[in-house]
Amino acid sequence: MNIAELKNKLIEIYGENEEEIRFFRSPGRVNLIGEHTDYNGGCVFPAALTMASTVAVRNRKDNIIRLFATDLNYVVEAKLDCLSLYQSYRWGNYQLGVADELQKAGFMLTGCEMVFDDKVPLGGGLSSSAAIEVVTAVALLSMNGYEPDMVEVAKLTQLAEHHYIGVHCGIMDQFASAMGKKDHAIFLDCKTLDYSLVPLDLAGHKLVITNTNKKRSLGESKYNERRKQCESALADLKQDYKEAEYLCDITYAQLLHSKNLIKNNIDLNRAMHVISENERVKLSVKALKEGDLSLLGQYMIESHESLRDLYEVSCLELDVLVEASLKQPGVLGSRMTGAGFGGCTVSIVRDSDIEGFIKNVGDIYKHKIGYEASFYLSETADGGKEVFI
Ligand code: GLA
């Protein structure tokens, strides 16, 4: 739906009045490499996508917030002075969680009417939630006369997800959605939030995103459990590394040296993934900057193996896609992207081989899994901002 159509939708749903209607957009993201490192104080390398969440919004003079989406057939209504009541809503809870967090941070909000057009596949591991959270924050702040500080927006929306949704996610998704830049990937140190934009120059290749179409939800997944296992590994390693605040403060060589301190084998595997993955991110950024795409692809392959065998967040559907992708001509690398347990893979594929890739991987997947995968050739995009008709 384009912006003019979204405006019409808002008027159709809530009626006409004098208040100004404005529009905001915030993207989903694909993570090139650096999975489950963000909440371990490590590095990530995501890029924002053209698949995005767009909202049309108009202020109200009372304290009621009303939400609608183009793929929904009812309006969600909430009062800004009792936002804690709506946590169990199946839809609208992300937006209301953000409003709650903004108010707790001291921002004064008035009521409003919103219509969302969400084009990031839901539950697909491409940060559909972060896109909604960030666009909500940018819209609410802007509509109440605040100039959004986008790093602050990333932090507040991450907290909204912790407090309101109950998923203890890292900051990667919200940061990528807030701070992304077209034609670039973001090399982000999640401990310090230092970041740099790296030109995504893929010299005759494209990122192909393949969706398993296996639905998952982070809340129901083992995400929080993985976090706890990492904390437990860190607690053990602290006997040797007292100063370490996060797992990623420890190098792989140090981990190998002290691995006997980790009592539980599963915790050890989790730590081996996280710390090796963090080192792979840095090497991948270097490879991309030097134009060595084959090396970048190799790190992606290693990343997938580590997520599958050590972190155990892959699944049959993701493994089938990666395995089929790596057999195709012109493919430099392929891996699961996002939290795992379903969602998408990302592959680097030579332009001239993309058509064959989609056909062959699609056929193999359908044959082995029994239903279709979806393929996206989404371009990269800018982070959350106001958009105009
Ligand atoms: C989800 C979380 C992120 C990150 C990834 C895994 O997308 O929201 O913070 O932990 O999983 O890398």
Task: Please identify, by name, the CATH architecture of the domain at 3-199 and 381-387.
Answer: 2-Layer Sandwich
**Discrete helix count:** 11
Provide the spatial order of strands within the biggest beta sheet: 5-4-6-3-1-13
Strand segment tally: 13
Structural class by SSE content: alpha+beta
Please estimate the helix content. Answer: 25-40%
> What is the end-to-end distance?
12 Å
Describe this structure in words.
It is a single chain. The chain has 11 helices and 13 strands. The protein is an alpha+beta fold and 389 residues long. The protein has a domain at 3-199 and 381-387: Ribosomal Protein S5, domain 2 (2-Layer Sandwich). Strand 4 (64-69) and strand 5 form a beta hairpin. Bound molecules: alpha-D-galactopyranose. Alpha-D-galactopyranose binds at residues 35-36, 38-39, 169-170, 172-173, 338-339.
Question: Keyphrases for this structure?
Answer:
single chain, 389 residues, alpha+beta, Ribosomal Protein S5, domain 2, six-stranded mixed sheet, four-stranded antiparallel sheet, 40% helix, binds alpha-D-galactopyranose
